[in-house]
Design goal:
Blueprint lengths: L1 E2 L14 E4 L5 E4 L4 E3 L12 E2 L11 E4 L4 E6 L2 E7 L14 E3 L4 H7 L2 E4 L4 E4 L9 E5 L9 E8 L13 E10 L13 E4 L3 E4 L12 E9 L10 E8 L10 E3 L11 E8 L4 E6 L2 E6 L18 E8 L13 E10 L6
Parallel strand pairs: 1-2, 5-6
Antiparallel strand pairs: 2-3, 3-4, 6-7, 7-8, 9-24, 10-13, 11-12, 12-24, 13-23, 14-20, 14-24, 15-17, 15-23, 16-17, 16-23, 17-18, 18-19, 20-21, 21-22
């Protein structure tokens, strides 16, 4: 059934019945007594856990992918219903099991992933909306009216502090999470021009360990830019890479690599990032589309054996470029992260 949201009550929520709101895009499924809201997903892709059998004790409205029969399924009351089915030729969106998976739905979950927040923990909070699924997401505020508050936050996920990882870190790391910039987020930084600054999680190779004296420590930051940088609309934005590595001279600023297309504010996107330190490979995907693909001609990490030949931490460094603070007059600047996962090898987004 398809109709405007205001007419939903005119339809009977028969068990398994589906309703699509043509004016809001919200999807519902009937459980026999009421309409249940299905999780919101970015329009380009559907992300769900993959199983070869239906999960035990699934919650009402929960969605999963059955890779053995190529079906998306959902729990409706006491029964399981098929939401969408393929022809059997497709594969799961993920080829491996996450080492760590965190919904970032609550403040305690945020702190369990980013175990150390060095700067402005008060600017990070769990919010119930917007959210890709579940009950919340992590919000970072770069408020524009405070004095010289160019930092949003800085948090670390140290691999050697967690039993899920090898004690010496990972040679390869695949990072997956969802991002959104609020529609009011102000990208126009007066100091950096098109660049808003660093933002969203990347990879850390002990960058703060004597980085001023040698080139072996490395850092791969996320960087938020206006899409002006690639000739697209200034109202859109880019999630770029900002890199310090052995190709960066001591004392120089890092190098920026832009994706091949822009993102819209107010929308969720699945971000996949992959680094292979040994083979000097760095990639990024938007909703399954490869948009950055770097190799040894572009990046050079520390060769083994070295204290810097592994991923040491996932680093969420969020601030406006330079020390001039956020742009004046734009109010709060909200950025959101949801459902973060780490893997020890490259995944199929």
């Amino acid at each position: 059934m398809r109709d405007v949201e205001g007419n939903l009550d005119q339809y009977t929520p028969t068990l398994g019945a589906k309703f699509f709101s043509t004016d809001t895009g919200v999807r519902y499924i009937g459980d026999g007594s009421q309409w249940v809201t299905l999780p919101t997903q970015a329009p380009q892709t559907v992300v769900a856990p993959s199983y070869t059998s239906d999960p035990d004790a699934a919650s009402n409205g929960e969605i999963w992918y059955r890779s053995d029969i190529d079906e998306f399924r959902t729990q409706v009351g006491d029964s399981t219903e098929t939401v969408a089915a393929g022809d059997g030729s497709t594969t799961s969106t993920s080829t491996g099991t996450a080492l760590v998976a965190n919904s970032l739905d609550t403040d305690s979950e945020i702190d369990s992933f980013f175990v150390e927040t060095q700067t402005n923990r008060a600017k990070v909070t769990a919010v119930s909306s917007p959210s890709t699924e579940g009950s919340g997401a992590m919000r970072i505020n770069q408020d524009a009216d405070a004095d010289n508050t160019f930092y949003g936050t800085e948090g670390f996920h140290y691999l050697d502090d967690r039993s899920e990882y090898p004690s010496d870190g990972l040679e390869q790391c695949h990072l997956r999470y969802w991002v959104q910039l609020d529609t009011n987020y102000d990208i126009d930084n007066p100091w950096a021009g098109e660049q808003a600054g660093k933002g969203f999680p990347g990879f850390d190779g002990r960058w703060e360990d004597d980085a001023s004296e040698n080139r072996d420590p490395w850092l791969v930051n996320g960087a938020i830019w206006s899409a002006d940088a690639i000739g697209a609309s200034a109202d859109d934005w880019l999630l770029s890479y900002y890199i310090y590595d052995r190709k960066t001279n001591i004392g120089d600023s890092g190098r920026t690599y832009h994706p091949s297309r822009a993102l819209k504010k107010g929308q969720w996107y699945q971000i996949d990032r992959f680094v292979d330190v040994t083979n000097n490979v760095l990639k990024q995907w938007y909703d399954g589309e490869l948009v950055i693909d770097l190799d040894s001609s572009d990046v050079e990490f520390s060769p083994a054996p070295s204290p810097y030949d592994r991923v040491y931490a996932i680093r969420n460094l969020f601030y406006y470029g330079g020390g001039w603070g956020a742009p004046d007059g734009s109010g709060d600047n909200y950025a959101y992260i949801d459902n973060i996962q780490t893997f020890d090898s490259e995944q199929t987004p």
